[in-house]
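Dear support,

We are seeing what looks like truncated structure output for some complexes. This example has three components. We would appreciate it if you could run it in full and send us the complete token output so we can diff it against ours.
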Amino acid sequence: MKLFGFIAVFIVGSVLLVMTMDFPGWGDTSSPASQGQVSSFYIEETINETKVPNMVTAVLADFRGYDTMFETVVIFIAGIGIIAVLRTFSDHSSPAPDEPEEDNEGGDLIIRSTCHLVVPLIQLFALYVVAHGHHSPGGGFQGGVMLGTSYILFALACGLPAAKKRMGERRAIIIAAVGIIIYAGWGVACLLFGGNFLDYSSLDPLLPGDAQMARSHSMLAVEIGVAFTVTAIMFAIYSNLATRGRLEKGL
Amino acid sequence: MIWQFDIIILIFMVVAALIALRVKDLLGATLVFGIYSFLICLLWAGMGAVDVAFTEAAVGAGVSTVIMIATVFSTARRSKD
Amino acid sequence: MEFLATGFFEEYIVPKFNYWIYVILMMIGLFAMITKNNLIKKLIGMAIFQTAIILFYVSIGVKAESGIPILGHEQHHAIVEEGQPSSEVIKKDKFANPLPHVLMLTAIVVGVSTLGLALAISQRIYRSFDTLEEDEILDQLRPGGHD
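Here is the complete output from our reference environment:
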């Protein structure tokens, strides 16, 4: 078995290595990818059409917004799938635990104090990354993942029951669904105003500024939707995987 | 994009990938996989792909490593090969 | 032998060296997915394979001596406030190609979703079979029979 695997990998690897001889050199500006029409259009015309300096965010949220919407749906389906595979519900008539129910947070004193200092800063920076995605590297995904990991840090430091009070299972699923509704709903709003689906320039009467600023504002709205979904699903994935589906006691 | 820097980071990445697959303790393998994610983030930052590096730093070295550690703690700790 | 030492290195090895390492990384990941026995090791191999492919794809958009694909402050000011035509202010070769970055952002996030779901399934397998080694699971599924 290992021998067959090794032979197969060796054949594929040598074919790929021989093909790299035909590639353009590293960083060649005359390669077909760099001279192509599509990327030249994106580099030169993004600022004229959308007034957004960050080309990657503009292409992600405006020119290729359909892809991003379905990517958000993929994250949502992964979260729902993990809940469906792992989640078990224990009987409500289980015997009471020996120690009394504690309402305060568990964990060490030093770790808890550091967590109380650090988590608000992380969340503030995550919101900054979401909102400032037009002018600096960032956007919806990065800010959403950071916001989700702030909840994971809180769960690791202060115990999972304390984090569950702030983002329980029901609240996480509702926030994730609201994120997708914002994204798809914005596309339907473009339909209602007379344009194509996700054609933001038709929202010009509704948003302040001219047609290009309407696209810039709409990109911010859909990035907020993406951030909602990613935040909730990251925490739902962690809480289900860390407790084997029972959501009782964390790591 | 200094090519000497790139070559050193790439060699470290290959070594990290080989170590992550040979170590029998699964917790160690997961942590070395975190090192691999961090090195690939550095490589992209040097190439000028800052959005991709940001996402990989948050997702690969953050969430991916944490959920793998969570799974390793809930299941077996050592592997036979 | 002097020309072999200097010209050969810069002309043949340095432009293509990166692509060879990417292919080696991909093959390491593929080999791990096929031959490793432990399920978590197979998943680590899958993740190495995925990130190596994403690395290769992003490297297509690299241009020598270019900056990041974000307009600087003075260029933004010149185009938006003063109204200069953008094809004069923006030099195309000074910006990295933004298209592979966009496609690979989606790929990274889809990769982490797949990893999360695979880890959940492996926990479920552990709950049912009490082991994570592939040969022990196959023995329990088909007692005595060997494929």
